[in-house]
Amino acid sequence: MKRNILFLIVASIMVYIASTGSGCEDNPTGPTIITDTNVHVYSGRVITGYMSPTSMSGINLFTGTIVTSESTQKDILLKDLDGTNQDWFLRDGSLSLLDLPAGSETLFKMLREYDDLSKERFDTISRIKNIGSTTVQPTTEFFNITSTAQYSNPQYLNPPLSNRMVLSFYLKGKYENGVTPNKVWGLIHLEKMETVGGEVKLTVNVKINTKGENQFLRERTVTGIEQ
């Protein structure tokens, strides 16, 4: 009887080891969902078209904060072509108007990432295309556009949006001014544009990675080897 009980105990231990692994450190675990704290997602930010220095026409892409046109914290500004309240575009925040102080320099990638994308699809985008899979040094080969007016089809933005485009950007000024020790870039999705009370409103969604990596999913699945 005792021999049978001992046999059952040993057999149970062997089954447990076979099913869970030996416990060695090099034994990989299964997929795990992790939260990447370096990824910051700012959804539903509304930029107002520039009318005066106090217009909420700028956005700090590093913090996701909407700021006034005259703020030195702006990374990009929503401006119209000739003061006619039409043909709008986003431009580098360091390109100051006569009555506005300069903000931080921001460069767009010369090619758009995607055209006419829904918010739900934007949420699934994990990388900027064609610049590598990890940390990449932004260069003029990729990031050399200072305004969305340098794109085409469409060149300018007007309500309602004809193209819910996704653009990538490099926060050059934030790095060179010491705001961040890393060369940070990100993605911006132009979701909606409308006229409210005589003012043009552009709704955008933004993703950045403060570590300077080409990875933009706040939550992602990794294998045991990657952890």
Report on this structure:
The model is unreliable at 15-27 (pLDDT under 50). The protein contains 3 helices and 12 strands; from the N terminus they run αβββββββαββαβββ. A hairpin with a 2-residue loop joins β10 and β11 (199-209). The protein is of the alpha+beta class. The radius of gyration is 24 Å and the shape is globular. It has helices at 2-20, 119-123, 172-176, and strands spanning 32-35, 39-48, 58-60, 65-67, 76-80, 88-92, 107-109, 143-145, 166-170, 185-196, 199-209, 219-222. The longest helix has 19 residues, at 2-20. The two termini are 47 Å apart. A 6-stranded antiparallel beta sheet has the order 2-11-10-9-7-8, with no helix packed on it.
Main beta sheet strand tally, sense and closure: 6 strands, antiparallel
What general outline do the C-alpha atoms trace?
Answer: globular
Q: How many beta strands in the DSSP annotation?
A: 12
- What would you report as the Rg, rounded to the nearest angstrom? 24 Å
Arithmetic mean pLDDT: 86
Percentage of residues in strands = 25-35%
